[in-house]
Structures are given as C-alpha cells and as structure tokens.
Amino acid sequence: MQLEIKNLSKTYPNGVQALQNVSLKIDKGMFGLLGQNGAGKSTLMRTIATLQNPDQGHICFNDIDIQEHPEELRKVLGYLPQEFGVYPSSTAYELLLHIADMKGITNVSQRNQQVESLLKKVNLWDVRNKKLGGYSGGMKQRFGIAQALLGDPKLIIVDEPTAGLDPMERNRFYNLLSEIGEHIVVILSTHIVEDVSTLCNQMAIIGKGKVLLHGNPEEISSRL
Ligand code: ADP
Ligand code: ADP
After folding, report:
1. Where is the ABC transporter domain (predicted)?
2. Whole-prediction pTM
C-alpha cells in the first residue's frame, strides 16, 4: 500500500504559493506531516482527498492516479478535516447511519453492524443516543474518527486532530489512531512535534509549501 505524491504545485488566485513541487512517498503506517500554520498542510490534505485540484503534479494511491479516478480514491478514503462539523441536534447513532448511507453502504444489516462496531471501537456506544451538541471536544473527535473509518478505508487523513483536546483525550485519540495505522496508510497533519515523534514511523516537515525534510522521525531529529 503506497501513496505517491509527485511534483505537486498549487498557487491560489491571490498569488500565495501554497505548494511548490512537493514529492513524497508514503507507505503503510502512520505518516506525520509537520509544519507551522500556513505551511501548506491543509492544502496538501485537501488535494489528497480530491477536494481540490493541484495546478501541477500527480498523486497515485496504489498506482492509481487519483485526479483521473477520484471515485476510486473516495471509495477507500477516510477523511477527518480540521473543522469537522457535526449536526448538534442529531445523535451519534443517527448521523453515523446517515453518513454510512451516503458512503454507499446500502445493505441495512451491514450498515447497522458497522455503525455498532465503530461506536464501540471509539467508546461512544453508551452515549450513541445523545445529541452531538452535548458532546465534549474529545467525544466529537472520536465521532469524527468513527465516520472516517466507515466503509473500511485504506487511507485515512486527519488534519490537526488534537486542537481543543485535553491531554487525556489526546492520548485516547492517539491510541485509537495508532491501532488503525498498523494496517493502512494514516496521514496525520499537525504542528505539534511530540505528536509526530511519539506516533509516526515516517514523517516530513513542510514550510512555505516546500518539503524541507523527509524520513523517519529518529533520522530527522538527529539532523535538527
Ligand atoms: P490553517 O489552520 O490550516 O492554517 P487557515 O486558517 O489557513 O487554516 O485556513 C482556514 C480556511 O480558510 C481554509 O479553508 C483555507 O482554504 C481558507 N483560507 C486560508 N487563507 C485564505 C486566504 N488568504 N484567502 C482565502 N481563503 C483562505
Ligand atoms: P496549513 O494547513 O499548513 O496552515 P494551508 O494549506 O491552510 O496551510 O495554507 C497555506 C497557505 O495558503 C497560507 O498562506 C494560506 O493563507 C493560503 N491559503 C490557504 N487556502 C487558501 C485559499 N482558499 N485561498 C487563498 N489562500 C489560501
């Protein structure tokens, strides 16, 4: 399983060069994308998620060009955007069923089974019938991960996922992610160095739209 990013560039209409010739190879496991605010992380994440197009370059997942075949990528993608909006008046159970339906999991018993097992996995089963508006930040994040895991994704993208979590919630969230990351490609975008050094087996640092360093975290910290 591999995500390959080749010579990706993106300039916004206002002239900001958000990505400049970015190339990365990302294998199975947890990949940390580290960079300050404005470095280009969200632009890269949204481009991988096929929510926006680059001006130049290609992205291949398992040798399939995702701009040419966005529908193939979306089938295997779980995405937790930076600002994941939940509908405050629906319950976790209702919303997850609805999202499962939208993701094309149309078989009712399969859908119910998957929603139940995911809510248990993220430890929200007991509060499944409570409204999301009453959830804490950590609970909302765990809900966000549950929806990203629907449909058995092979690639998961999480963008600045720990903002607003207390240390305990953060630990729980990371335990969950590393469990998932054993089997598929997980990309974690963050500006927090410790998140990457404790969790990731591969990493890159980007700044001003360029890849500054790329390798394993020990290798990189020895060069800093
Ligand atoms: P981040 O925390 O990733 O740096 P930003 O604050 O840069 O996020 O961006 C938040 C949202 O606003 C994003 O959807 C981004 O595309 C948009 N955005 C950021 N900068 C600009 C800009 N200069 N003009 C228009 N939209 C922008
Ligand atoms: P990060 O996620 O690392 O904070 P972003 O990808 O959000 O970085 O932003 C990279 C640069 O592009 C920033 O200078 C930001 O203001 C700018 N930017 C992001 N989105 C937009 C947008 N939609 N329009 C114009 N500029 C944007």
Report:
1. 3-224
2. 0.87
